[in-house]
Design a protein that fits this description.
- The structure is a single chain.
- The chain is an alpha/beta fold.
- It has two domains: 329 residues, FAD/NAD(P)-binding domain (3-Layer(bba) Sandwich); 357 residues, TIM Barrel.
- 39% of the residues lie in helices and 19% in strands.
- A hairpin with a 2-residue loop joins strand 11 and strand 12.
- The longest helix has 31 residues.
- The radius of gyration is 29 Å and the shape is globular.
Length: 765
């Protein structure tokens, strides 16, 4: 077998070592355009987990690497003179130059041919190679020549960064945040060998411009940053190595191979340095490609296919985590408003891979500080400073919630003629007994033609009001849970079938929307609303508001999300009007704001109101980030007390980016820009995630949907897991505490034990 490797980075070198070791007969040639002792950048970082994988694959490489690495267990977050150290993080670093030299040594020992100062511009001489491994970095010339075949996409991220070094000694991986008159600058720092440390400085483009940094003027950059970070550098100089300001390129490829070429390392996929995974990603993929070649040594197309199949998902997961991490740094200026320990906690949990519970296992002294700060700001008494964030109370106007956990609006599709019944009674009351802070009802129509399906609930007549009151009276009599009603109108989504039925059964009614645009090709075309329609609809919302108060609801939430009637005015994808209600976001807001304002005027001032919005359409040319902030501000100014932040479902062609806690960043942006409380939701599954979100300041309330469908006692189980003693367990059920609490304590101990056991052993020599 003949293998040609273009690019002598860690990934290509390590693949060559493993392959030559396993297949001594094969010919491997590595072509690197730089000299053997050239290296750009300073240090590289690995976790104990990654080094452990090297141990299994090649003992010689492992021993060489381990002997030349600097190790640390702590991560330090420092901001403007304040700092906190978080233990339990196993990482190591070394000089990139040293790493390359060690891998060069192993290549020579195994018989890999190394060719330096050789730039490959023509692949013709290598067409007889069984494999051409393209691993020549982010700016791969080879990949760029076959950009169409590989399906290459490169997106430059917003922040600016520059990679420098220093002689400043560091005993931990440290984030130094410095607040300047022009915005926040962060230094990602770590020591990689005695007397040398990496310093990556990062800031927003706006901050970069205001400081007058220039892309290629290294001396000017060093002089300015040394002055800004003189306390952190403590008299030590910064050192450059072709250190130019850049924007991080996010690289993906639809196809990882073409003919006899296969991509590896940064040429294939990049991961932002904030999760320290660039070199790890390259070397993990080198192992994956090696495994695929060993499985199909005589069939490279099958080997390449296997490589893609086994590695694509892990790579995309790392890239997603890196993008989430990067998002936190792109919003440093917004995050900087938080109290110090909350800020540090946000930094540690930014990628969503690390949670409150993870950190509590690693370093309880840190999480205690985070919790104490949070509870002190909530005016929690000193005796309860360890109260989990999820179980702290929250107040909206005169309404006080006993905890931060909310049941999200979920259609039950079980009403008849809009009338709720025994199903709804047990559905809502059982979850109230289960200890929720707040229940938000399914979307409840303000008119008969405002229903989504024939099974949807309404509150537009006296009988409906009476049945809702029966539910509310029970909840208020026997629980401390509060209940709010989501009032809405289906708009163009009306006349829909009940989810478990094959088709809509009934007579269609006239649908209304901002514009005459059907939801999809199978949907009825709605009528574009006239002024008369708007007047009638507004009056229906107002009457429903009065009915909701009479029915005993504690709160109202206005449905202005997911493409329903009011939401159809907000998105440019569903509002193409040319009158005063179309065009600018200010115009698109007019009708939804009118509805809300008139509802607010008739709803008792002591009772709060929420608005649920879609913060993105997940579709091209949809609602913008700026539009969303304008919408939230407008509703806040009109008297909204909290914004329930959802996303999407505006158009059928949406392409949402889902995952755990996937909608939380949108809640974060609204809460901490508009300065209004928010509710978040979206694949939030356990109490740990809820605590993490709240302690991060990303939302004030967390809404659950599906987790509550088959677990009405989610909150009770979570309280037992946290060993939190609530005061609202009904007398009839208190005997259950003696069973549930020891059981959940045992389960938690087992979970924590497994997490500790699975933590990679230290590779420190």
């Amino acid at each position: 077998m003949k293998i040609t490797v273009i690019g002598g980075g860690p990934g290509g070198l390590y693949f060559s070592i493993l392959t030559k070791k396993a297949m001594p007969h094969c010919q491997i040639d590595i072509y690197e355009r730089n000299k053997p002792d050239d290296s750009f950048g300073f240090g590289v970082v690995f976790s104990d987990e990654t080094l452990g994988e090297f141990l299994k694959r090649d003992m010689q490489s492992y021993e060489l690497i381990r002997s030349n690495f600097a190790y640390w267990d702590d991560i330090v977050v420092a901001r403007d003179g304040q700092s906190v150290s978080i233990a339990g993080n196993g990482f190591c670093g070394c000089s990139r130059k040293t790493l390359l030299q060690l891998l060069h040594q192993r290549c020579r020992e195994e018989g890999v041919n190394l060719h330096f100062e050789t730039e490959i511009t023509d692949l013709t001489p290598f067409q007889n190679s069984d494999m051409i491994l393209v691993s020549d970095g982010i700016g791969s010339l080879t990949r760029s020549r076959f950009e169409k075949e590989f399906g290459t996409k490169i997106t430059l991220k917003k922040n600016r960064f520059v990679w420098l070094g220093s002689t400043k000694p560091l005993d931990a991986f440290t984030y130094f945040f410095r607040t300047t008159p022009h915005g926040v600058i962060v230094a990602h720092t770590y020591q990689y060998e005695p007397g040398m440390s990496t310093w990556i400085f990062e800031c927003s483009d706006e901050t970069w411009q205001k400081h007058g940094f220039e892309i290629t003027n290294e001396q000017d950059t060093i002089a300015k940053i040394q002055e800004l970070f003189k306390e952190e550098l403590d008299g030590h100089p910064l050192i450059s190595n072709k250190s130019h300001w850049r924007q991080f390129p996010h690289v993906t490829n639809d196809n990882w191979y073409h003919n006899n070429m296969v991509l590896l390392g940064d040429a294939k996929a990049t991961a932002h340095y904030s999760i320290g995974s660039g070199t790890k990603l390259a070397m993990d993929c080198a192992i994956g490609l090696f495994d695929a070649v060993m499985k199909f040594p005589n069939d490279m197309p099958k080997a390449f296919e296997e490589y893609d199949k086994t590695r694509r998902n892990p790579v995309e997961m790392i890239q997603y985590a890196a993008l989430v991490s990067l998002d936190w740094f792109e919003n440093m200026d917004r995050n900087n408003q938080h109290p110090f320990y909350q800020f540090a906690f946000g930094c540690m949990t930014r990628s969503k891979k690390v949670t409150f519970e993870n950190l509590q296992i690693r370093d309880k002294s840190f999480t205690d500080k985070v919790l104490k700060e949070f509870n002190s700001l909530q005016n929690v008494t000193s005796s309860a400073v360890e109260m989990p964030a999820a179980f702290s109370s929250f107040k909206l106007r005169d309404l006080e919630l006993q905890n931060r956990i909310v049941m999200s609006s979920m259609g039950q599709y079980s009403a008849k003629d809009g009338l709720v019944n025994d199903w709804h009674f047990q559905h809502y009351t059982s979850r109230a007994i289960g200890g929720l802070g707040l229940i938000l009802t399914e979307m409840t129509a303000v008119s008969e033609t405002g229903r989504i399906t024939l099974g949807c609930a309404g509150i537009y007549n006296e009988n409906q009001l009476f049945e809702w009151k029966r539910i509310n009276d029970f909840i208020h009599a026997y629980t401390q849970t509060k209940i709010g009603i989501q009032l809405g109108h289906s708009g163009r989504k009306g006349c829909s079938k009940i989810p478990w039925e094959e088709k809509f059964i009934g007579t269609n009614w006239e649908l209304l929307s901002a514009s005459a645009i059907p939801f999809n090709e199978n949907s009825q075309t709605p009528k574009e609303m006239t002024l008369a329609d708007m007047d009638l609809d507004t009056s229906q919302f107002v009457q429903a508001t009065k009915n909701a108060h009479d029915a005993g609801f504690d709160m109202i939430e206005l449905q202005a999300h997911h493409g329903f009637l009011l939401a159809s005015f907000l998105s440019p994808l569903t509002n193409t009007r040319t009158d005063e209600f179309g065009g600018s976001i200010e115009n698109r807001l007019k009708f939804p704001l009118r509805v809300f304002s008139e509802m607010r005027a008739v709803f008792p001032k002591e009772k709060p109101m929420s608005v649920r919005i879609s913060a993105t359409d997940w579709a091209e040319n949809g609602i913008s980030d700026e539009d969303v902030i304008t919408i939230a501000k407008a509703f806040k100014n009109a008297g909204a007390d909290i914004i329930n932040v959802s996303t999407g479902n505006t158009v059928a062609r949406q392409k949402p980016q889902t995952g755990r806690m996937w909608q939380t960043p949108f809640s974060d942006a609204i809460r901490n820009t508009v300065h209004i409380p928010t509710i978040t939701s979206g694949q939030i599954q356990d109490i740990d995630q809820i605590n993490t979100i709240i302690l991060n300041g990303r939302a004030d309330l967390v809404a659950l949907g599906r987790p509550l469908l088959l677990d009405a006692n989610f909150v009770r189980n979570a309280q037992a897991y946290e060993q939190f003693q609530p005061n609202d367990i009904p007398n009839q059920y208190k005997m259950g505490v003696s069973h549930l609490y020891p059981l959940k304590a045992s389960e938690r101990k087992q979970v924590e034990g497994m997490k500790k056991a699975l933590k990679p052993k230290s590779n420190k020599k």
